[in-house]
Amino acid sequence: MAENKMFCFQCQETAKGTGCTIKGVCGKEATTSKWQDLLLSVVRGIGTIQHSIGEEPTPEVTHFLTDALFTTITNANFNDQDILQKVDKGIVLKKQLLQKAASMNIHLPAYQEVTWGGEKTDYEAEGARESVLRHENPDIRSLKELTMLGLKGMAAYYEHAAHLGEENSEIISFICRALATISNPDAAMNTLLGVVLETGKYGVDVMALLDKANTQAYGNPELTRVNIGTGSNPGILISGHDLKDIEDLLIQTEGTGIDVYTHGEMLPAHYYPQLKKYKHLVGNYGNAWWKQKEEFESFNGPVVFTTNCIVPPSPSAGYRNRVFTTNSTGFPGWKHIQAGADGHKDFSEVIALAKTCQPPREIETGEIIGGFAHAQVFALADKIVEAVKSGAIRKFVVMSGCDGRMKSRNYYEEFAKALPQDVVILTSGCAKFKYNKLNLGDINGIPRVLDAGQCNDSYSWAVVALKLKEIFGASDINELPIFFNIAWYEQKAVIVLLALLHLGVKNIHLGPTLPAFCSPAVLKVLVDTFGIAGNGTVEEDIKKYIG
After folding, report:
1. Annotation-wise, does 309 bind a ligand?
2. Residue 8 is labelled as binding a ligand
């Protein structure tokens, strides 16, 4: 592989629908891609050795694996130095595990990821050797990467749960076992397909873990009207998914005269009773992640990234010196805020900067409604069941997932607009920004767009579907009047998809394009087994799936 080349096909916007080879559409440089490949090689080595040892993973192994996997998610970390520091740390940990295995007389498999010595002079060569293209067989490559991408999403959700004190060693042990299978150059197709499907099972488990962590810490999300205008005070804009971070920020900004606004996937913070109680949590500013260049500019104040969805700023961007990163995120030149020994973060530098900034420039006014996670939906269950039985609600469409830059994503706005008035949209993730500000009305007082929250809150729709299955006495989840029309972009969407497949959901509509990391043969298995299909026209799809 030439030094200026790369290969990455993990996101929906990958170049030409096949793979980025010069520079990522996300803005990732070829060198960054190489260091991420190197880091993932170390991750596979550690996972394989840990699985061979057979003991419960230590906190050090758990944190390294989840942090490293999260670091390589699309739009999370563009900082080569940060990624290489994680490689260094991983090699130290790997050598400790090798010593432990030797002391226990454990025979380790002779996979490249296990035997590589970790010499710094060999970093570039190892990064090239261990790229996605290390497998010549496209079907083997596809199945291994499908699992790997699912593990990345799983690690992201696990990290958020762990920040709130909820952990599950069985999930980490599975990650290690899956990494060992991926590392095996002789793994059979059936074995790899089995691990893909098992990844979905643990995807359900990790989303349940995060749901428990969020609701125990902050209460059950409740029906909430969120302001999309601005106040007159200087503000801090917080993006991403980590609720522990926004809580730290809200506590530290209380009484300072600084307002806090959410952006993108942090919008659902407004739905939690223990977060919405802060009066200086003023509202949500802007839209989905991909509009951040213009929205960060007009916001005027500092921006905090708690997770992925970074769009590299242009060199002339006025906001480039007022962005901070936390957790697994990073960007060259941006200040990174580490957690202290107590797990909390000190946002004093962000607050001091905010005090010197102008208030946000208002870009819209009004409000949006959300907070329909499973507990709130169950509170409305009688009303919803009656509406279904009476025919007032004909069908539910789950339109969860991601938003993105491609014009083809306008399909989702047009689909929402074209739905018959007796159809309710169930949404979660930033996909909702395509239609959550449209006036789509209600059915007997039930809003026609029910927003459960972040992408991980797709779990709520699985819980709701299983409850409706019980209420209506259906023998199969697919007998319910529910159609899944999912938009995907990055790897958290992959684990959500695998989780839905594990729960037995069939005929999922997946768009705006089908994944490049699925080879034709693997895609055929998914189509034949689960009925996965891609987008048609809005008119065709509504006629086919809604009637």
Report:
1. yes
2. yes
